[in-house]
Amino acid sequence: MLILASQSPRRRELLSRAGFDFTVVVKETAEEHDASLPPQVLCARNAAVKALAVAADYPQATVLGADTLVFIDGMPLGKPADEAEALRMLMRLQGRTHSVCTAVAVVMPGGERRDFAEVSYVTFRALSEADIRRYMQLVHVYDKAGAYAIQEHGELIIEKIEGDYDNIVGLPVTRLAEVLRG
Q: Is the pTM of this model over 0.90?
């Protein structure tokens, strides 16, 4: 039995599209946002907390926790609290390249852990405030790290990507499949 310890609709969609049979179980956990930690370490800690919280109640299942953050200038950008914060995030990203890190913690039956992190790079187009406000009218940005979703009107804001597209969406499913097979 595979359990996704995440309420992210994007992760559910990615797993379903990849053909995984899974159940969603979420426990409330506190996420870290310590900018002094390297991206992979910060995301890995958050992913592990989510997976371990659920695995404690389902020791015979394979439990998958994940955390995605956008990083620019060494600072993590999580989910914006409001419109003003979303606008600030998107203005900071416009015209620049940033990294997107997704860490995945897989707790196997019996407690063995198989963790990994994937980093991709996204370059935003040069955008005016009006361009960004238009994008924000089209996309619900408040539940997305960095205040954007590459899969929702990404063509309006994204110039190019380097790395795994699914990682930017929120779950590197190709790498996950390799880890689960291993």
A: yes
